[in-house]
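Researcher: Please translate sequence to structure tokens.
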Amino acid sequence: MDWGTNALRDVCDVFQVLAEVQSWDLPPLADRYKRACDSLALAEDSSMSKILQLQENGSSIDLSNLSLNKEQLTPILRALKFQTATRRLCLSANRLGDDAMDELLASLVTMPNLTLLDLSSNRITHEGLRKLCDPSTPSRDSPFQV
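Model: Translation complete:
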């Protein structure tokens, strides 16, 4: 019999530990982008890694006028999760469509300080905007008010 394991189990049964994470250190944005590409089995775009690296410490991420499609934007959006310093996210003049709104929203809800989101000149219709603004969608809170 392993007394250490049983003692630990007994302590855990008696006490409940409550904790709250105040902050944590994230890997650099370019590293998170590389990991997202790897997890999606996509080739990492070295120029995108450089763009993300140069903008990581600022309050603004500008990825406008790059003609990025959903496949190219998905690892970027995943890398941007919990980028809490970001106040301005510019994704204008890309090829972002309604089918990318769930991925976009998953990132946006983790950016509590975001005050400006530029999605102009994309392929987003009223249906895509509805996905972003609909608070009745299960398991998420809309970061936008209609």
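Researcher: Any highlights?
Model: The chain has a mean pLDDT of 86.
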